[in-house]
Give the backbone structure.
Amino acid sequence: MQSPVKRYASIVENAVEGIFQSTPDGRYLLVNPSLAKLYGYDSPAELMASVQDISRSVYVDPGVREEFKRLMAQSGEVRGLEYRVRRKGGDEIWISEHARAVRDERGEVLYYEGFVQDITRRKRVEEDLRHAKEAAEAANIAKSQFLAVMSHEIRTPMNGVVGMASLLETTSLTAEQRDFVATIRQSSDALLMIINDILDFSNIESGRLELEEEEFSLPDCIEGALDLVAPLAAAKALELLSEWGDHVPRRVRGDPTRLRQILVHLLGNAIKFTDCGNVVLSVQRIQPGARAEPATGPVGLVFSVRDTGIGIPEESVGRLFQSFTQVDASTTRRFGGTGLGLVISQRLARLMGGDLTVESKAGQGSTFRLTVDLTALPAATSPGNHPDPSLPAGVATPVEPPPVRTERILLAEDNAVNQKVALRMLAQLGYRADVAANGLEVIEAMQRQPYDIILLDLQMPEMDGLETALRIRTFDSPPFGLRPWIIAVTANAMRGDRERCLAAGMDDYIAKPIRREELAASLARWGAPLRRSAGPLARAEPVGVARSG
């Protein structure tokens, strides 16, 4: 039987790891064959004869030896210290070292002993992954910048197309001319939908889409979705209906914009694929319980959109929620689209704690079911003016001439076509406005006379909208003792643009192309007659308007 010394010696000689003993001043006392091979030497004797000072001959960075000593003095050991070493031929490798200090009875360090492992392959993989991650992040930034630029550049001329078509509709037209204008509006709306789909899909894919959390009226949200698609249904003589289930809360907390976006897409799809019959939107509480009124707190709702349209073949249902996929992908297909709408809708539904599913048979229509989690709130104390959501949608109401407005408005816009669009829309709403072509002209105009509202574009020469808003916000003494309400009106419609506008001191945000209804709502929200005191941040809140930040 071998003695313990020989057994231990055998273990050291045959170990896969490099094993060593070294003096505190950097000389090897013992090395095994694996360590010699690791450092490129033929034998332990050659390594010990060649390396007289580890810190100068082995360490690529001599400072690592000082870190080694510091750790030894602090805790008497090092665990997993990773650093580069130089081999015999001059090439470098990475090692991981585990070692301890061996001391005498007085506590003085006699020598260090430990083992090292070659981790060069792992380090190379980590480096490759780091480079790949940096490249992916750079590509993602470049993609986001490209999308932001393209979105802005497309939305700017589209604002002229959509705005002028909207203005043209309000003039005296023949039946043929009105049909032409309607075609322009429908085509521009379709193009804008494609742009929005691509931007939403990009944000969802990169994980950068976040939901809002605000209180809203569920009947208003549903009515808004129905109103948007009602002209499409009327054009095809389809009956557009809505149904309201028992115990469904009227006021909820969640993201009304994204909920309405999903409903509009589902309703629009149903109308597109239905030639006769009806499209019905219903909302039910998933677990209504026995209460006559819904309880407050978390509530699950299911929105169903069913139609009497062409339906979907069973073998094609699985492709509905695949990106850039059409059920009918042939060159003779009747219906256009990016193939992203349902994908975006389903992912939005899942972000809202629910899902989007479909039941359909060819020739028998389809039913899409959207489930979401919202928070039910107590009913509003005031009766409000919400129409019964169980009534058919799309009924027109008389439009009264706009009242003459007294608010003083300054329009900051450098594009001549967009100036014309905004001024004409304001005129139709009863407002008059002065024009500034850049931020410097805004500041100069504010020195000449007071303004209640500034409609501020973001991308302008000389001084952009963000810098202009910051300059106005930091006035120590606002001209005429007033600080106007600032509404961003911009083609910058990417995620974060609204937040940047508000952080710069703006009060509201409208994305181009401008919709007259949206402009009117924003002006009504912020442009009520105001009584404001002097001061850099002095403001008077409109009655009944809640603001954040």
The chain is about 40% helix and 20% strand. Confidence is low (pLDDT under 50) at residues 288-293, 329-336, 381-400, 528-549. Residues 477 and 535 are 6 Å apart (CA to CA). The chain has four domains: 12-118, 126-205, 214-376, 409-526.
